[in-house]
Design goal:
It contains 6 helices and 8 strands. The protein is an alpha+beta fold and about 160 residues long. It holds the Pfam family NLPC_P60. Belongs to the peptidase C40 family.
């Protein structure tokens, strides 16, 4: 009986603290997390199915931020700021040339060199170092002011 009690106590602690959880508890994390696994749908802008810019726009819209619709428009938007890779922070957008003809894919940087995006296998988390994306990486842009970043990407709810 003692072994069972110790096991259950350990399991309860593990679940309570969710050791190794991918997500923290910021507003950005809580908005992205339930969308992981959502199917890919070309032109999709809802949890019934997303394309890359539809996913990005949906997440930001849930946070009260309006963005242009396409990855190409996002990349060229005058309200964004081009940033270097060493400046990346959660909420920045990362851009890729997956079509061979310029900007064609976008994701949301979530930290630890990873980004959330809608790919052919659905909404997922991928490392910027994954060879497919590393070869096609174009750069990053910042859309959030420092104040907004603090509210949605660092504040724990």
């Amino acid at each position: 009986m003692r072994k069972v009690s110790v096991f259950l106590f350990g399991l309860a602690l593990l679940l309570a603290f969710q050791v190794g959880s991918v997500f923290a508890d910021s507003k950005l994390d809580k908005t992205i997390e339930p969308l992981i696994g959502t199917d890919y749908k070309y032109g999709g802008t809802t949890p019934k199915g997303f394309d890359c810019s539809g996913f990005t726009g949906y997440v930001f819209d849930q946070l009260g931020i309006d963005l242009p619709r396409t990855s190409r428009d996002l990349y060229g938007w005058e309200k964004s700021k081009k940033i270097s890779d060493d400046e990346l922070r959660a909420g920045d957008l990362v851009f890729f040339n997956t079509s061979g003809s310029g900007v064609s894919h976008v994701g949301i940087y979530i930290g630890k060199n990873k980004f959330a995006h809608a790919a052919s296998k659905g909404v997922t988390i991928t490392s910027l170092d994954e060879s497919y994306y590393a070869k096609r990486y174009l750069g990053a842009r910042r859309f959030l002011s420092d104040e907004t970043y603090e509210k949605i990407a660092t504040d724990i709810e």
